[in-house]
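If you are new to this repository, start here. Below is one unmodified record pulled from the training split, so you can see the exact layout before writing a loader.
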Amino acid sequence: MAERTIGRAELVRQLGVPPDLVRELLRTYRHWLSQPDGGRYTAQDLARLEIAARGRVAGEAAAEIESRLGATLRPGDPPVPRLADAAREDAAGTGALRESAAGSEAPAAAPGTQAPVAVHVAMELARMRETLSETSERERRDRDRMLTALMRTQQEVASLRQELGATRTRRSRRRGIMSWLRG
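And here is the target side for that same chain:
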């Protein structure tokens, strides 16, 4: 019997986090999923993404999340590459790391192994991606705070204008009656 799978919308609903965070988790931890590009997710995928989501919301480092995900491996499961390894594979697929390693002064690595420069570059790319995602999240929060402050300021200005208009109207009415009485 085939294992029950769920789609992305159900995944978002069950995780209880914003869809953009789910997209980021799917992109970052796809090497932990049973079908990384399949669009259908198993119960094990859901459990792993839940661990990653909780860790991300709690502000844990990627290495901590990876170690927690490592605890979900069962005997007989194939080994899962770590984030740095996955980033190296992604970049190597485009040829970017091979070119940078070939163009460097570093000694050639033995066949079947990665050049030290390539490993360093892959780790640096993974760190930069994480920093970039943290920065974009911080910018989004700051933008939301600024918009909220702007809306409150606009409401305050509208309220003050209304009060000023009411005060002027009362003053002009008083002057009108006083000049009529004197008149």
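Two things worth knowing about this chain: The helical segments are 8-15, 19-28, 43-57, 62-70, 83-94, 96-103, 116-182. The radius of gyration is 29 Å.
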